[in-house]
Amino acid sequence: MRKIPKKRFLDVAGMILRNKMAKEAIYPFYCSFKLTRRCNFTCSFCNCWHVKNKWIDMPTEDVKAVLDNLARSSTIVCSFEGGDPLVRDDILELLKYQYEKPWYLLFTTSERDMQQRYPMAEYGKYIDFLHISIDEGHKNLDMYDELEEYTKWGSIVTVQIVVTKNDVGALEEKIKRCHDAGVKAVVMCAVHLKNTKDHLPDLWSMSRVGLEMKKKYPGVIISPDGYFNRITWDHGCDTSSIIVDADGFLWYPCRVLEEKTINLIDSDLMTYLESPDGHERRQRMAACDIQCAWYQYYATQSFVNPRELLSAWMPYYRDLLNKGKQPVFAASPIAPRDPRDLIHAQIVQESAIRGLPASESLIELPTIDGSRHP
Predict the structure, then answer these.
(1) In 131-202, which residue ranges form alpha helices assigned H by DSSP?
(2) For strand 104-109 and strand 77-81, is the pairing parallel, antiparallel, or unpaired?
(3) Buried residues in 197-225 as b, exposed as e (16+ CB within 10 A)
(4) Is 136:167 a contact under the CB 8 Å cutoff?
(5) Which residues pair with 243 in a beta bridge?
(6) How far apart are CA 315 and CA 335, in angstroms?
(7) Using an 8 Å Cβ cutoff, are 353 and 327 in contact?
(8) Are strands 249-251 and 260-263 parallel, antiparallel or unpaired?
(9) What is the chain's pLDDT, residue by residue, as a tens digit (374 residues)?
(10) Which of 31, 251, 337, 356 is deepest in the core (most CB within 10 A)?
(11) Bridge partners of 260?
(12) Contact 18/32 with Cβ under 8 angstroms?
């Protein structure tokens, strides 16, 4: 995990304060950058792949111009998404370029056989949080069997689980698998987009199950409590996050309303956000009555809300304390015969799950030999 200058955090804190004073999310802190619309999946809840065969990606230099623009803004988490960003031939160059920017990078992919097809260990050097989409919609549930392999690439691994109306009951099995592998999970609803099937789950059921899973598997689900609460509200979203399309245009105030504004290749983001048009669009979003449950619009505000900071950031604490290292525990294929060895293995596993290196967390303690009797 990269080190971000303290001044950057102070600047962002100032913009959070300005948002609070203005009573509107003028400055976003999370940006989803769609690097391409090409993808090797055809999920029925997604409309990116509808144009994948005729889509031409932005030139590398234009992508870099957008990244420069975002780096001048309030963005402190940038997410490379798609389509699937791995299909771009210049992805390593873009990863290296963004690594100098003052943010954390989240990289989302659903590609199969990544360890064979891509140099993921090299890519991992420039990725802070690797999100891997695994769910019924992607028809790739077999990838849960490879979670331990993904943790070897150097990034903090999170399984991205898109839940449809038919999959709410299957959520716990996936969360338990993430727990056992020592990885995180981000849980989100399948949003109903234009030209897609309506897979949006019952929001009250989703809210209840999500909060139950967070209590049962603490530290695994990074979706904040605020997300599971807000999806049941009449209005629970805001512009704390933004989406930039694969052509460089800004969807604003949100993706659901299907409205694009400026092109970030040549138009300054911060100037636009402070403009009358930006303000008018935020007002329109505040009056919107569509309960879309789009994750980033409902969740991001939890990470900057003083009342929700502890809940939202708790899953990340172990990684920050562990200097960004992915906690991994490889169980022995042969069960230990000595009960003391089994106890030792359990302690090591718990240490890994908590994100503490075994060398620092285990202390040699005196023992009593049970074979001796007075």
Answers:
(1) 147-150, 171-181
(2) parallel
(3) eebbbebeebbebbbebbeebebbbbbbb
(4) yes
(5) 32, 251
(6) 30
(7) yes
(8) antiparallel
(9) 788 889 999 999 999 999 999 999 999 999 999 999 888 877 767 766 556 567 889 999 999 999 999 999 999 999 999 889 999 999 999 999 999 999 999 999 999 889 899 999 999 999 999 999 999 988 899 999 999 999 999 889 999 999 999 999 999 999 999 999 999 999 999 998 877 788 999 999 999 999 999 999 988 999 999 999 999 999 999 999 999 999 999 999 999 998 999 999 999 999 999 999 999 999 999 999 899 999 999 999 888 887 776 667 677 666 655 555 554 433 333 444 444 444 454 444 444 444 444 444 444 444 444 444 44
(10) 31
(11) 251
(12) no
How far is it, in rounded angstroms, from Cα 215 to Cα 158? 18
Of 320, 128, 369, 136, the C-alpha closest to 219 is 320
| Tokens 């293995």 belong to residue | 345
CA pair distance 74, 13, nearest whole angstrom: 10
User: Tokens standing for 319?
Assistant: 């990684």
Residue 56's contacts (CB-CB under 8 Å, 6 or more residues apart) are: none
Its pTM surpasses 0.90 = no
Q: Which two tokens stand for residue 68?
A: 């420069």
Alpha-carbon torsion (303, 308, 312, 316), positive or negative: positive
